[in-house]
Automatic annotation (TrEMBL):
The keyword Coiled coil applies. This is Calcium-regulated actin-bundling protein C-terminal domain-containing protein. Residues 146-173, 202-250 form a coiled coil. PANTHER family: EF-HAND DOMAIN-CONTAINING PROTEIN, TOLA PROTEIN. One of its GO terms (biological process) is parallel actin filament bundle assembly. InterPro entries: Calcium-reg_actin-bundling, EF_Hand_1_Ca_BS.
Length: 255
């Protein structure tokens, strides 16, 4: 078990090679191709597992690991069509986790998936140099293709992120411009409303001033008429007084 534990700490590629070297003869070509496909899934989920870690709890740069934790192990089984409930997964995971470290190495997965014996695996020779070379070459080809695909995916994600960033900036700019236009329109409407109110107030004030001026002119005219009437009345009163005095004088003389 100790030697097995050491092997599970190797890269997924080395683990797959170890399994295939042990069971090369009884593994048909379609199963070998399937194992390469499963290896790629391990690589993909391993990167996702790293990305999901908090930045302060992961290495600064990504390096391929050797096993998946329970969460990502469940994800891997789902990705190959083995949908299990949480309870079903825990039961199966106990069978998979041969070294009981609560993680799933690719070697443990392959033993479980293809119902191979751990004891048989560790007792098998690792094959002839030619067989090892052939398995390694196939893995290298898949690794190259996977790396190219991953680079393309990363580039596509970066391009999409940049496009989304530009889209967000454009939306933000358009929103800001629309907001500025709305503010300007509101200010213009408020200015027009204030100007209209001021004009109405000015017209009302002018009308009241003209009415007051007319009232003042009428009052002046009436005052002047009253003054003239008073002067005329005084003149008539003075004449009457003079006439009365003259009549009295004549009366006194006649006596």
């Amino acid at each position: 078990m100790r030697e097995f534990g050491v092997i599970t700490l190797k890269s997924y590629k080395d683990q797959a090679s170890f399994y295939l070297n042990a069971f090369w003869e009884e593994t048909d070509d379609s199963t070998k191709e399937l194992i390469w496909s499963q290896w790629k899934k391990f690589l993909d989920l391993d990167r996702q597992q790293w990305n999901a870690l908090p930045k302060d709890k992961r290495p600064e740069t990504y390096a391929v690991g050797s096993s998946l934790d329970e969460f990502w192990s469940h994800k891997l089984l789902e990705s190959i069509g083995k949908t299990l409930t949480a309870i079903e997964f825990r039961n199966e995971f106990k069978k998979i986790d041969a070294n009981t470290d609560k993680r799933m190495s690719m070697l443990e997965f392959l033993l479980w998936e293809y119902k191979a014996s751990l004891k048989e695996l560790m007792s098998r020779p690792q094959g002839t140099d030619e067989e090892v070379k052939r398995a390694q070459e196939l893995l290298d080809q898949v690794a190259t293709a996977f790396a190219a695909a991953q680079d393309a995916l990363d580039q596509a994600k970066a391009t999409a992120a940049e496009a989304e960033k530009k889209k967000s900036a454009a939306i933000e700019s358009d929103t800001a411009a629309k907001h500025a236009a709305d503010v300007a329109k509101a200010a213009e409407d408020a200015a027009k409303k204030a100007a209209a109110a001021a004009a109405a107030d000015a017209a009302d004030a002018k009308q009241k001033a003209e009415a007051a001026a007319a009232d003042a002119a009428d009052a002046k005219q009436k005052a002047e008429a009253a003054t003239a009437a008073a002067a005329d009345a005084k003149s008539k009163a003075d004449a009457a007084t003079a006439a009365a005095a003259d009549a009295k004088s004549k009366a006194d003389a006649a006596t």
